[in-house]
# Entry
Amino acid sequence: MRALLAVLLFVTLTLPAQAEPVSGYAFLDDSTREMQDDEFSNPGMVTVDRGAELFHELRDSEVHSCSSCHGENGAKIDAKAIARYPVFNANLGGLVTLQERVNYCWEINLDRFPLTPGNSQLIALETYVRHLARGEKVNVQTDGEMAPLLAKGEALYNTRFGQLDMACQHCHVQHQGQMLRGQKLSQGQANGFPEYRLGRGRITSLQQRLTECFVSFRAEPFEEGSPEYDLLELYIMSRANGLEIETPAVRF
Ligand code: HEC
Ligand code: HEC
# Structure
């Protein structure tokens, strides 16, 4: 009995502190950290460069490029505004992720056909603009109109899905710090997205990473750009409030 109590006490004392967000960066080995920190060896920088090209590109017969409104090298983009995404924008129908904001500008301000969520040009532009805010602290609104949406996102985060009957929080809250198939489970923070994935050899948006997690615990993923993914993105971005934007982060 005493032993059981000791175990219970141990478990309670070692439960992760809920309040403190910790970036996935803290869970990396030294060589991956160095790779992320050095812009010449960070493989995600190729996507930042691709995004920069798209941002400045003036296509045939078009009047504007992104840079004609947002400045050469994004000089008029406010890092603090980027750090607030996803935002609530009543004119744009409510919850808007950064990728959706880019797509609105693509469609409305450049008069082009909107792109499908997860399109590589969208991800490149998203990576570029978020990289402009690197070092800025994530600062998602949690009160007002956002409060009920956040509650929905949190409910999804705690919902069990699929054959293994698992929820996000099982791995990223309850078991953070433990090993799973050779990987150390982090808090599943979103401050480094879009990020470069060494194991997959490609840039990965946040919603693409969610799909990988769903598949890994054998559950049916939602679609990129779906209301469910947008709500999850909102909730996990709000968990990252206070963490510095690392885009493009490097992860396994
Ligand atoms: C004709 C001008 C115009 C063009 C061209 C344009 N945008 Fe925008 N963009 C805006 C306006 C206006 C806003 C809203 C700013 C606000 O709400 O304060 C905005 C907002 C944004 C935001 C959110 C930042 C913020 O301050 O809220 C991003 C990111 C962005 N645009 C990216 C792009 C990208 C990428 C392109 C090219 C695909 C582009 N924009 C093209 C006018 C433009
Ligand atoms: C079976 C365990 C498991 C479940 C359940 C799970 N994930 Fe993950 N997730 C992982 C592993 C493993 C990684 C890669 C290592 C790490 O960062 O934890 C990861 C990584 C992530 C990352 C990237 C973290 C970073 O720093 O790049 C995010 C975001 C994430 N998960 C969100 C979610 C969300 C949201 C859910 C629920 C839909 C979920 N995960 C469910 C195992 C899981």
The CA atoms of residues 86 and 97 lie 4 Å apart. The chain has two domains: 19-38+139-251, 45-132. The longest strand covers residues 87-89.
